[in-house]
Amino acid sequence: xxxxxxxxxxxxxxxxxxxxxxxxxxxxxxxxxxxxxxxxxxxxxxxxxxxxxxxxxxxxxxxxxxxxxxxxxxxxxxxxxxxxxxxxxxxxxxxxxxxxxxxxxxxxxxxxxxxxxxxxxxxxxxxxxxxxxxxxxxxxxxxxxxxxxxxxxxxxxxxxxxxxxxxxxxxxxxxxxxxxxxxxxxxxxxxxxxxxxxxxxxxxxxxxxxxxxxxxxxxxxxxxxxxxxxxxxxxxxxxxxxxxxxxxxxxxxxxxxxxxxxxxxxxxxxxxxxxxxxxxxxxxxxxxxxxxxxxxxxxxxxxxxxxxxxxxxxxxxxxxxxxxxxxxxxxxxxxxxxxxxxxxxxxxxxxxxxxxxxxxxxxxxxxxxxxxxxxxxxxxxxxxxx
Length: 386
Description:
The protein is about 75% helix and about 0% strand. With about 375 residues, the protein is mostly helical.
């Protein structure tokens, strides 16, 4: 049975106003500072698009593991995938303005640059656009198929839908590994086409999945406070806290590995990336990113009791959500701004996309029962460690 919106009318109106404000700021930016407006769109859209697809990864991993404990709040990551179509539209706009963002997108660039000429078979707009269309289409198809089985099971309780989702999840994880690698290289790493790192897709995944875990935990706790998921207990909180704690360490490990290998090898094509990000204020931004994504969550969630405490868990998750934005900012913005100075377009565009994400999440979450009552794993989740 469909439910009413989670959002109060005023909150919904505020989110819609943010979306309109973000669109207006973006359109104004196209006239006044087109490159920065498109860079802001790329950053904000990457933040929410990778959050949405990583939420689907969380669902797929639990399906493949036969894990019952998150079934109680599975509608949260399911609703987060609702941003995928909006994210695809955002990437279409980035494609239309790609020559302002990607140096290699100008055919004349390869004429005077031997390295770009050597990469032209891969880095060219038609092939880039085709890859983006394929990636986004596959993500949406798998998301729709997995969610459809979940929603249909609410009606008929057919156990076959659980088995079907396990098979879909297995196929999706294989597809995701290839497509996310391409997306990381195409949409972010190719902003600096002379630079390369074999660790970069792993690093992007570590950050995106950590962000998704933090957002799932944050939303599950907040919805529980609103009266949803009555059986949500300390063991659910503890497991979510362990996920955030563990993947915060994993993200930091990947950050360090990428930095150490490039620093140690000292290859000019590689060190230029960190040379830029170690000067003119960017080092401070990197330090804040490490603090928000790794140090703060680790300190907050180190004790077992802290993982079960709402305030500690919420603080750690909010820190990671802020840290993910900083991480993407450091990856994207130095390509367009010599110094680490916020631009007046950055915040309104980001908040506009945040408003879109909240509205889509709310609509999706309200379109189905909050708890998948006919899922065979629900009993295990209701009595998790009980």
